[in-house]
């Protein structure tokens, strides 16, 4: 659609294909042809409604093409008594309500409203996959279907995309019983296949392209500092910030709680992962300049973590105390219940740096969010924790990230990382606790002296509110196979 002539010829072809009884192949090659074809007389007083799907494709055209189309429809609307075209309905994502053009506003639409397709409920996703199971003669574990629902938030396209992924990539890996269990599903999720499928899906490719535009940078700064990696609704009070949130909602990145509430959240875990892999690393490129620390073809994890932290965006960390926070269950600055950065802040920064740094050395980095559901169907009793998986053909590393965790939380995750690592057949298991807790690195909490935990490495990174004083304590398996300890070591920042 580079020229007006090309555009109208393409419209003519589509009209001929869709309604050959009314349109010949060469009937419409210009705006004038289009208007002549919709004159009232040839239609015998019939009223025509024109439905235009994938209307957002028009936004990729230049302003001359957009103005020609919109101006033609408006001309017909302004003289509608002479035309059979009674109404025009366009279909596309929410962003079609906000056309962008440097030309004067010639939008022909006097009703700008959205009829949104509701996301599937869990019951609908279960019903859909039950039908798929029957057709494909296989069994999908209920926890897999629930995980699909949680990761897609019921988005119809993503729900179907997961079904296609199972059909194309996982069916051939099923055993004789043709049963897809959660272990096989989890292994699949740490591969890049799902996000690769998303980026090939036109709406998500367009989303990524739009977010990478220079004029979207302010919105991306806002997204990165407030929403990424967090899946609860956040109330936005500033009018300027609401404008940015509405833009991100129109792009499909955020969803709004209701039309009367200015509360927003990431639209799904999968969209969050797509933004963190395909957008944020490209726009925020800082990473270590030293060589990637390696040993025997694998990653020297502790050294890589230290170098990564030196490149953390200090502004993001400092602002998180007010923008992306949680209530600490540990003592901070001598007080209880202080606001501290939540897990998503550290996860997004570490994921960004690793993607910009070690991926260039043939390491594969995948971020994952996991739901912990302590009470069935009680949204208030759910929370998420994050893993970063680093893979080479020879070795798999699991980093389980926490933020200002107390001893109870740490003990739970000492257990959980073992279970997750077993599902992935991971060689290297790490608990990484970013914390603002007083004396966290002077009196670090380690796993029990039990053979069960002898493969679990733990590192605590303490930092102050200004991210100027960063200290580390670590318990890790050395090359000799025994534990080495580092206590309260200062990390020199850039």
From TrEMBL:
It holds the Pfam family AAA_35. It comes from the Eukaryota. This is AAA-ATPase-like domain-containing protein.
């Amino acid at each position: 659609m580079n020229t007006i002539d090309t555009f109208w010829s393409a419209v003519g072809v589509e009209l001929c294909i869709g309604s050959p009884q009314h349109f010949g192949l060469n009937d419409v090659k210009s705006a004038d042809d289009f208007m002549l074809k919709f004159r009232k007389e040839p239609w015998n007083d019939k009223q025509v409604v024109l439905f235009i799907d994938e209307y957002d494709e028009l936004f990729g055209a230049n302003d001359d093409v957009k103005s020609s189309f919109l101006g033609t429809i408006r001309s017909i609307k302004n003289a509608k008594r002479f035309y059979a075209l009674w109404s025009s309905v366009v279909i596309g994502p929410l962003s079609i309500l906000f056309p962008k053009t440097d030309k004067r506003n010639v939008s022909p639409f006097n009703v700008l409203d959205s009829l949104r397709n509701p996301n599937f409920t869990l019951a609908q996703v279960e019903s859909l996959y039950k039908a798929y199971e029957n057709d494909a003669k296989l069994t999908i574990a209920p926890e897999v279907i629930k995980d699909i629902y949680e990761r897609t938030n019921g988005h119809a396209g993503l729900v179907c995309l997961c079904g296609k992924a199972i059909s194309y990539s996982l069916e051939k890996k099923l055993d004789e019983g043709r049963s897809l269990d959660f272990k096989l599903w989890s292994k699949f999720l740490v591969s890049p296949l799902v996000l690769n499928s998303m980026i090939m899906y036109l709406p998500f490719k367009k989303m990524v392209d739009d977010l990478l535009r220079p004029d979207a940078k302010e919105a991306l700064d806002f997204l990165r500092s407030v929403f990424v990696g967090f899946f609860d609704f956040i109330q936005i009070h500033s009018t300027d910030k609401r404008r940015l949130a509405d833009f991100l909602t129109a792009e499909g990145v955020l969803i709004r709680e209701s039309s009367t509430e200015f509360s927003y959240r990431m639209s799904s875990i999968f969209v969050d992962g797509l933004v963190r892999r395909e957008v944020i690393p490209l726009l925020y490129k800082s990473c270590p300049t030293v060589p990637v620390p390696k040993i025997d073809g694998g990653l020297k994890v502790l050294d890589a973590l230290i170098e990564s932290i030196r490149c953390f965006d200090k502004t993001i960390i400092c602002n998180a105390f007010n923008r992306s926070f949680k209530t600490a269950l540990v003592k901070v600055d001598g007080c209880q219940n202080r606001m501290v950065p939540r897990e998503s802040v550290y996860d997004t920064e570490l994921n960004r740096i690793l993607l910009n740094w070690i991926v260039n050395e043939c390491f594969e980095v995948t971020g994952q969010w996991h739901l912990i559901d302590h009470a069935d169907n009680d949204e208030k009793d759910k929370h998420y924790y994050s893993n970063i998986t680093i893979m080479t053909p020879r070795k798999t590393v699991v980093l389980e990230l926490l933020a200002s965790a107390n001893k109870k939380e740490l003990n739970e995750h000492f257990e959980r990382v073992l279970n997750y690592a077993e599902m992935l057949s991971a060689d290297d298991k790490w608990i990484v606790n970013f914390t603002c807790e007083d004396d966290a690195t002077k009196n670090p909490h380690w796993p029990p002296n039990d053979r069960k935990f002898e493969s679990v490495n733990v590192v605590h990174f303490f930092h102050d509110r200004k991210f100027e004083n960063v200290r580390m304590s670590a318990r890790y398996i050395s090359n000799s196979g025994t534990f080495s300890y580092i206590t309260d070591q200062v990390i020199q920042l850039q």
